[in-house]
C-alpha cells in the first residue's frame, strides 16, 4: 500500500514526514506528495527499490514522491542503482524528470523541507549518474519528480531500480585522536601503547565530504621510525585537470607542519597511491573549496622501523657495487623466489652507486635470475643511466625480449608492480625513472654466452626529477622557477629527458619576468604520448600553458609528436604544466626560453621588483582567483 503523507500543501511551507512504516511500492502514485519508507527495523539485510510501474514507463505529473531510508543509530545507508533512465530536457537536470538526493539529513530533524540542502540531482541515463550513493548519517531521502506529458515527446523512459543495505558506520572511523573543538583534525602518534598501523578517512566518507573545509592529519613516529601512507581510494573530482587548478586536493608535507617541503599533491581520482616519509613526521592537509564535493578518500598508515628491510646481515654479491642482499616482495606481479643476486638498494644507505649483472664485465652464468629492488623516501625518484648493455639474444628473437635474456623494469601502479619495459640485445637503453620512490629491475639470463658482458648502470635517488635548470620550488613535488633577474635565457626539459618520462607525474615550470617583459618558449623536440584533444577520454598525457596560475583558454593542450614550435606569453608571468598518466610514455620535450622586453624588443636583465616577488608568493599560497585580484 502507499501512504499519502500530505497533499495539496502550500509549497513554501511544505515539510515531508515519513513515519516508521515499511511500504511496498506496487502501484501508480497520485499527484501530490507521498512517502515510501524502508527501515532497518523491518529489513535489516536491505532490499530493493524501484520507480512506480518499473520496468514500464513511470507516470507523469508526480509532484514529489519521497523514498526514505531509516537505519539504526550507528548505521549508514548504501544505495546501488542497477537501472536508471529518466526524461531529461537539459544536461544539468533543471528541466525534465529527476531525483533530488538528500544524503546529509540531520539526526535531530523530522524530515526534509524545501530548505533542506540536497546533495545530488540525478537525471538522464545510467552513465550520467553515480552508481553508488552513501548517506552520512542514519537517514537517506530522495525525491522523485516528473513533469506533465505535454513537456515530453516519445518518452519511454522506464525510471530506475536498485538495491539498498544498511552498513555499520563505525568501520569508517578514523583511528587517530581528534583535536578538541575541531571537525576533522587528527593526530596519530606512535608508541608502545598504540597500534603501528591504522586507517583514516575524509569527513563523512564514504558519503560526500562537506564544502569549504580544511582537515589536517598529523603523524608522529618514534625515533628510528618513519611513516608509510597508502591512499587506497581517492575520489575528489572527475577529469585530468592539473592539481594546480583544483579546488579540492590533498597535500602531503615531509615534516610536522605545512612549512615543510611538499612530497605529494593528490587530486581528481586515483587508487593505491603510496607516500613514504623521510623522517619521523608527516603532515597531510585535505582542502575542499569546490561547490560540488566528491566522495573523498580512504587511506591507511603504518609506522615503519628504519631497518625493517635490512634485518639480515649484508652479503657480498659479485657484480653489485652497493646494496643489501635481502629481497623484499613489493608487488604480486613479481615472484617471491630469491637468489644470491637479489639486492635491495635503499636511499638511507647511499644516494648513488653502480649496479651490474653478475660477473660483469665477464659473462653472467646461464639460468641467472636477479632482482634489484630500489627503495627511496619522500619525493625521491630512482633514475637509472646505462653505461654498457650487452645481453644474449638469438637471431630468432631479434624483435622481442620475452623469450630471450632480458632486463625488465617494474614500477608501482595501482598498488601493484607493473612491467613497463623490457631490454635485450646490444642496444643501450635510454635513462629510466620511476614514478615514485620504488623501482624494480629483474634480470633474466636464460642462455648466456662467453661473448657477452651483461650490463652496467649508475643509479641515483634524486628529488629533482632529472631537471637540472631553474630553481626547484618546495611547495610542489615537481616545480621549477625561472626568474629573469637571474637568467634571461636558458633551457629546460621534461622529467628524465632524453629518457622516457615517468608515469603519474605532474611538473610545473614558472617563468617570472619584469612588468614589461614577456617570455618566449621554443620547443626543439616534443614527444608527449597522446592524441588531440589531449584529454582524459583519449588517455593522453599533455602539456598546457597559461598566463596565470589558473587555466587560460587562449592556449590548447599539446600532445603527440610535434615539429619545432614557439609559444609566447602575454604577461610577465607564464606557466607550463606537464602531466602524465599511468598508461604509456614518451621521451618528453627539450625547450629553450628567453625573456624579451616588449618595448625595446630585446633581452633585459633587471632585478625583480617587490611587486613581482609579492605576486609570486601569493600564487604559491592562495587560490588563483585571489592572486588575479591582487596582482591584475
From TrEMBL:
InterPro entries reported for this sequence? CUB_dom (IPR000859), Sperma_CUB_dom_sf (IPR035914)
Q: Which UniProt keywords apply?
A: Disulfide bond, Repeat, Signal
The record ties this protein, via PANTHER family, to: OVOCHYMASE-RELATED
From the Swiss-Prot or TrEMBL record, give the protein name. Answer: Suppressor of lurcher protein 1
- Determine the domain of life of the protein's source: Eukaryota
Q: What range does the record give for the signal peptide?
A: 1-28
Ranges in a coiled coil: none
Where in the numbering of this chain does the CUB domain appear?
Answer: 33-167, 184-304, 341-462, 478-596
**Electron transport: is it a keyword of this entry?**
no
Amino acid at each position: 500500500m502507499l501512504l499519502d503523507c500530505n497533499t495539496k500543501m502550500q509549497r513554501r511551507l511544505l515539510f515531508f514526514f515519513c513515519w516508521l512504516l515499511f511500504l511496498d511500492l506496487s502501484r501508480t502514485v497520485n499527484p501530490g506528495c507521498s512517502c515510501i519508507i524502508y527501515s532497518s527495523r523491518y529489513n535489516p539485510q536491505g532490499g530493493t527499490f524501484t520507480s512506480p510501474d518499473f520496468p514500464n514507463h513511470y507516470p507523469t505529473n508526480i509532484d514529489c514522491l519521497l523514498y526514505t531510508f531509516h537505519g539504526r543509530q550507528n548505521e549508514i545507508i548504501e544505495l546501488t542503482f542497477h537501472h536508471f533512465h529518466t526524461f531529461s530536457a537539459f544536461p544539468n537536470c533543471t528541466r525534465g524528470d529527476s531525483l533530488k538526493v538528500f544524503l546529509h539529513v540531520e539526526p535531530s530533524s523530522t524530515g526534509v523541507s524545501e530548505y533542506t540542502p540536497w546533495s545530488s540531482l540525478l537525471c538522464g541515463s545510467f552513465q550520467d549518474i553515480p552508481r553508488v550513493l552513501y548517506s552520512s548519517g542514519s537517514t537517506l531521502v530522495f525525491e522523485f519528480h516528473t513533469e506533465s506529458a505535454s513537456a515530453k515527446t516519445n518518452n519511454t523512459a522506464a525510471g530506475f531500480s536498485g538495491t539498498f543495505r544498511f552498513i555499520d558506520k563505525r568501520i569508517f572511523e578514523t583511528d587517530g585522536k581528534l583535536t578538541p573543538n575541531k571537525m576533522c583534525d587528527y593526530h596519530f602518534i606512535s608508541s608502545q601503547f598504540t597500534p603501528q598501523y591504522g586507517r583514516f578517512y575524509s569527513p563523512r566518507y564514504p558519503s560526500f565530504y562537506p564544502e569549504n573545509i580544511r582537515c589536517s592529519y598529523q603523524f608522529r613516529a618514534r625515533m628510528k621510525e618513519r611513516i608509510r601512507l597508502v591512499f587506497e581510494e581517492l575520489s575528489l573530482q572527475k577529469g585530468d585537470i592539473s592539481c594546480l587548478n583544483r579546488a579540492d586536493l590533498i597535500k602531503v608535507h615531509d615534516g610536522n607542519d605545512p612549512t615543510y617541503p611538499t612530497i605529494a599533491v593528490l587530486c581528481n581520482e586515483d587508487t593505491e597511491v603510496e607516500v613514504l616519509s623521510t623522517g619521523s613526521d608527516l603532515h597531510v592537509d585535505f582542502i575542499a573549496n569546490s561547490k560540488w564535493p566528491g566522495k573523498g578518500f580512504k587511506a591507511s598508515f603504518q609506522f615503519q622501523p628504519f631497518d625493517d628491510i635490512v634485518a639480515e646481515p649484508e652479503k657480498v654479491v659479485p657484480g653489485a657495487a652497493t646494496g643489501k642482499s635481502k629481497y623484499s616482495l613489493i608487488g604480486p606481479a613479481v615472484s617471491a623466489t630469491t637468489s644470491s643476486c637479489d639486492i635491495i638498494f635503499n636511499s638511507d644507505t647511499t644516494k648513488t652507486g653502480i649496479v651490474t649483472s653478475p660477473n660483469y664485465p665477464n659473462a653472467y652464468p646461464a639460468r641467472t635470475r636477479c632482482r634489484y629492488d630500489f627503495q627511496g623516501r619522500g619525493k625521491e625518484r630512482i633514475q637509472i643511466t646505462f653505461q654498457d648493455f650487452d645481453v644474449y639474444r638469438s637471431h630468432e628473437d631479434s624483435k622481442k625480449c620475452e623469450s630471450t635474456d632480458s632486463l625488465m623494469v617494474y614500477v608501482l601502479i595501482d598498488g601493484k608492480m607493473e612491467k613497463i619495459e623490457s631490454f635485450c640485445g646490444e642496444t643501450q637503453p635510454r635513462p629510466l625513472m620511476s614514478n615514485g620512490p620504488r623501482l624494480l629491475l629483474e634480470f633474466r639470463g636464460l642462455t648466456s654466452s662467453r661473448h657477452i658482458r651483461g650490463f652496467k648502470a649508475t643509479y641515483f635517488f634524486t628529488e629533482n626529477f632529472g631537471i637540472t635548470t631553474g630553481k626547484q620550488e618546495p611547495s610542489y613535488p615537481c616545480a621549477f622557477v625561472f626568474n629573469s633577474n637571474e637568467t634571461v635565457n636558458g633551457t629546460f626539459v621534461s622529467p628524465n629527458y632524453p629518457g622516457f618520462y615517468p608515469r603519474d607525474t605532474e611538473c610545473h615550470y614558472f617563468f617570472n619576468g619584469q612588468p614589461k617583459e614577456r617570455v618566449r618558449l621554443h620547443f626543439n623536440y616534443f614527444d608527449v604520448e597522446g592524441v588531440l584533444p589531449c584529454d582524459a577520454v583519449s588517455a593522453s598525457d599533455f602539456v598546457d600553458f597559461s598566463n596565470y596560475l589558473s587555466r587560460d583558454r587562449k592556449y590548447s593542450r599539446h600532445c603527440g609528436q610535434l615539429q619545432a614550435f614557439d609559444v609566447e606569453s602575454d604577461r610577465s608571468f607564464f606557466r607550463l604544466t606537464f602531466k602524465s598518466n599511468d598508461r604509456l610514455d614518451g621521451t618528453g620535450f627539450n625547450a629553450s626560453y628567453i625573456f624579451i622586453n616588449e618595448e625595446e624588443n630585446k633581452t633585459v636583465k633587471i632585478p625583480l621588483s617587490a611587486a613581482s616577488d609579492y605576486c609570486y608568493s601569493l600564487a604559491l599560497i592562495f587560490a588563483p582567483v585571489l592572486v588575479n585580484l591582487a596582482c591584475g
